[in-house]
Specification:
The chain has 17 helices and 22 strands. It has 507 residues and is α/β, with parallel strands linked by helices. The chain folds into 3 domains: 17-247, Rossmann fold, CATH 3.40.50.300; 251-339 and 426-507, Rossmann fold; 353-424, no CATH class.
Length: 507
């Protein structure tokens, strides 16, 4: 393990945060049972576990978002029972969530002003405070920039600065690197370690064991709502032990689906969309029974390509054929009728409605069909039955038809999306980073579900920055750079040197 032992503190220094025998249930289903956690000043402390293990729920309790059903909390030795995030903030606790909470049409300063309340009376004051805090902690941000124009890494900096401006000394980061490149992830984790060494306390919720090993001082492992390893020094933990503690058993290896190319399902010719930097268009063909992996560094047109394929955005020029039918001008609904299914990169921004129930989310794309209706009324009994079946088939843990989707872990929310999209009428699946932010077991489940669908005749365009994910499933691999296909090979001919050269813009 490469992590150091943290900041040396005088004897008798109280713990930054103590959580003892914490229990919490949702809709009668236990999410936490006698969980415990101890965070020290001056350290980066990782919490790991499967999706649904209770990591985020435990930290949401510390952040005042949920109230525990039982248990005790202390901050710096003082009893602590927050009734809201504002209460937790008064004790110096700030949480940066996996899904950012920013108003995209506002500037950075305007978002900060919303958060600061009475601590800033004008946008100018908020901007000044942002600049001062950013300079103090070593982050770069432009307060005048519109949030929608920021990169993912920049948005995350804004979220961190927001909680630091409120005086956070205990910083909780929920899956902070899930949507960052490797370079951005390293920069962020270096920053969090510097914060800890300055005297703050940092909790890192992550699935990436390499990050745990390299950047954390201590480790807590959770499984099924319980703490199975509490506050262990990283120097005393072997990486192989972490995975077994997380899952309690071995995770099955995902198999690449058998190659059986059939009829043409998706054909793109000279497709041009916003974000491309040349007049040349993108060409791509995809057949039934195969996976085409589209590798590339984020920001090279992947989001725009998915938007054009789904019908959410019109291309500048070029053509899209779906199952032999000209689809360039077709509506999203008609494309779905042709068998096109989408798994977006952000499951909540583009796939699920977090405030709706699981039954509603699973049935929302089929509401117009008579099977879901009774005249003008929804057939709730049929919708609930469909949800019960999906929960069983996709092993959606902690789920019930009438439970709000936002109460699920990331991996289980992704399974809800899969249950809806991988239906019997699917012919083409566009899967954008389908296992992003998921733990080992949940990621394996998602990949295995895709593999089974392809073996049953579906065509899959797998878009991912994770080369291991690409190589695990793909029969052919193409590299996207600046919105164009820079090269393509069969999976057996792919080498790291070939991919690396194309990613960097060299043939």
């Amino acid at each position: 393990m490469n992590a150091s032992s943290g900041l040396r503190l005088p004897p008798g220094t109280p713990e930054a945060l103590e959580m003892v025998n914490i229990s919490k249930a949702f809709d009668g289903k236990p999410a936490l049972e006698d969980a415990r956690f101890t965070l020290r000043w001056g350290e980066v402390h990782a919490i790991v576990g499967e999706n649904g293990a209770g990591k985020s729920t435990l930290m949401n309790i510390a952040a005042g978002i949920y109230a525990p059903d039982a248990g005790e909390q202390r901050v710096n030795g003082e009893a602590f029972a927050p009734k809201s995030p504002a209460d937790a903030s008064q004790f110096g606790i700030g949480m940066v969530h996996q899904h950012f909470r920013l108003v995209e049409t506002f500037t950075v300063a305007e978002n900060a002003l919303l958060n600061l309340g009475s601590q800033a009376r004008s946008i100018r004051q908020a901007a000044d405070q942002l600049r001062h805090k950013a300079e103090e902690v070593g982050l770069q941000i432009d307060p005048a920039k519109i949030v929608s124009e920021l990169s993912t890494a920049e948005r995350q900096r804004v979220e961190i600065l927001k909680v630091l401006l409120l005086g956070a000394r205990i910083l909780i980061l929920d899956e902070p690197t899930a949507v960052l490149t490797e370079k951005e992830s390293t920069a962020l984790l270096d920053f969090t370690r510097r914060l800890a060494r300055s005297g703050l306390a940092v909790t890192l919720i992550t699935h990436k064991l390499k990050e745990v090993a390299e950047f954390s001082d201590r480790l807590t492992v959770m499984r099924h709502g319980r703490t199975v390893l509490a506050s262990a020094p990283m120097a005393e933990v072997k990486e192989a032990e972490i995975g077994s503690l997380m899952v309690g058993e071995a995770v099955a290896q995902v198999h690449r689906p058998k190659a059986n190319p059939g009829e043409m399902r998706l054909a793109l010719k000279a497709l041009r969309f916003p974000g491309q930097k040349t007049q040349q268009g993108l060409d791509l063909n995809l057949r039934a029974g195969e996976v085409l992996g589209l590798a590339g560094v984020g920001g090279n047109g992947q989001e725009e390509l998915v938007a054009c394929l789904s019908g959410a955005q019109n291309p500048i020029s070029g053509t899209i054929d779906i199952t032999g039918e000209a689809a360039t001008a077709l509506s999203p609904r008609r494309r779905r009728e042709l068998g096109l299914r989408i798994i977006p990169a952000d499951r909540f921004a583009g796939g699920l409605v977090r405030e709706m129930t699981i039954a509603d989310n699973i049935s929302m794309t089929e509401i117009a069909q008579r099977a879901q209706n009774r005249g003008l009324m929804l057939d709730r009994r049929r919708m609930n039955a469909r949800a019960v079946d999906a929960i069983a088939r996709f092993d959606i843990r902690g789920a019930a038809p009438n439970r709000r989707t936002e109460l699920l872990s990331g991996g289980n929310a992704q399974k809800v999306l899969l249950a809806r999209e991988l239906d019997e009428n699917m012919k083409i699946l566009i899967a954008h980073s389908p296992s992003r932010g998921l733990d080992v077991r949940a990621g394996a489940f998602v990949r295995e579900a895709i593999a089974r669908a392809v073996e049953q005749g579906a065509a899959c365009l797998l878009i991912s920055e994770d080369l291991q994910e690409i190589m695990a499933l793909s029969h052919r691999v193409a590299v996207i750079n600046n919105g164009l296909i820079a090269g393509e090979r069969s999976a057996g001919e792919v080498t790291p040197e070939w991919i690396g050269g194309l990613l960097s813009g060299h043939a």
